[in-house]
Write a structure and sequence with these properties.
Number of helices: 5
Helix content: over 70%
Low-confidence stretches: none
Number of strands: 2
Mean pLDDT: 87
Structural class: mainly alpha
Strand order of the largest sheet: 1-2
Largest sheet: 2 strands, antiparallel
Distance between the termini: 32 Å
Strand content: under 5%
Shape: elongated
Order of helices and strands: HHHEEHH
Length: 91
């Protein structure tokens, strides 16, 4: 089941307010679901920034605009990786 943008927005908000210690207890299954949701969101953002012309040619997005659009997804991925790393060192 594909996650909607609303689902991903809620997930991003949860990640932003969670501490690393809270996230350590999520477990491998939840980490996998979160990464799949974030990957789907990343793909949706990239697609929405790609311009398709009437003749069918595709213009790639401006890298700066795309980078700004992906900031929350990037930050969430970094925070999850930090929680996994911290948890593996503690365990």
């Amino acid at each position: 089941m594909a996650a909607t943008t609303d689902d991903c927005s809620t997930l991003l908000e949860r990640i932003e307010v969670s501490t690393l210690d809270q996230m350590i207890g999520w477990g491998a299954d939840r980490y996998q679901r979160v990464f799949r949701t974030l990957a789907a969101e990343r793909a949706a953002i990239e697609d929405s920034h790609r311009h398709v012309h009437q003749d069918g040619t595709v213009e790639d997005p401006d890298p700066r605009e795309l980078s700004r659009a992906l900031e929350r997804v990037d930050a969430a991925e970094v925070k999850i990786i930090a929680a996994i790393t911290k948890g593996s060192r503690a365990g």
